[in-house]
Automatic annotation (TrEMBL):
GO molecular function annotations of the record: manganese ion binding
One Pfam family it belongs to: Cupin_1
Record protein name field: Germin-like protein
Keyword annotations: Apoplast, Disulfide bond, Glycoprotein, Manganese, Metal-binding, Secreted, Signal
Coiled-coil annotated spans: none
Source organism per UniProt: Dipteronia dyeriana
Upper taxonomic lineage: Eukaryota, Viridiplantae, Streptophyta, Embryophyta, Tracheophyta
Amino acid sequence: MISSSGSSFYLLCCLAVLLILPFSSLSSDPDSLQDFCVANLNSSISVNGFPCKPDAEVTSHDFFFDGLSKEANTMNVFGSNVTPGSVLEFPGLNTLGISMNRVDFAPGGLNPPHTHPRATESGVVIKGKLLVGFISTNNVFYSKVLSAGQMFVIPKGLVHFQLNVGEGKALTFTAFNSHLPGAAVVPLNLFASTPAIPNGVLTKAFQVEDDVINAIKSKFGS
Ligand code: GLV
Ligand code: MN
């Protein structure tokens, strides 16, 4: 039999678990254990994240980044360009669990289907008109055409894309709950990996002949 003090203790424990659970399941990168840990990207020590630059060497410069201020060149097969602002470009983000990208689109440009293995993405369209879509693990396609000021969210790890469906150029800024979200670009993963995936895998997966696979591979220079 549980005494009344025992049952209140039990209730308190349940309450504590209920309060803590959502935080552990919602977080992506782990919480930091200090104010900041500006990354030393050149350290030979290998850890989960990057070692911290000594506090004495940290300056204001470490907490500001202008790498997303310029329009990028979109002259490539996709007609889009992702400029990353992750810990690799902006070491002040190390351990803080966030980062951003800038994505420029030529008219008709596509940010091709890709996934971020370590982060949920949200974005805001700054200029133009974008068809933004993702596919769930149940194979349901969710999409909407967005214009300037409108936001979107892509749940962690799901395949997604943005296509410029407006008349002119388009621009979006995206944000991630990881300092290094990673990006696996589906067409490049499948048709331009090193070494190449054997044609036998791709012909079977896509139910086409060898020449179709070779034609697609040739578009990516292999
Ligand atoms: C857009 O999908 C991005 O990854 O920045
Ligand atoms: Mn993305």
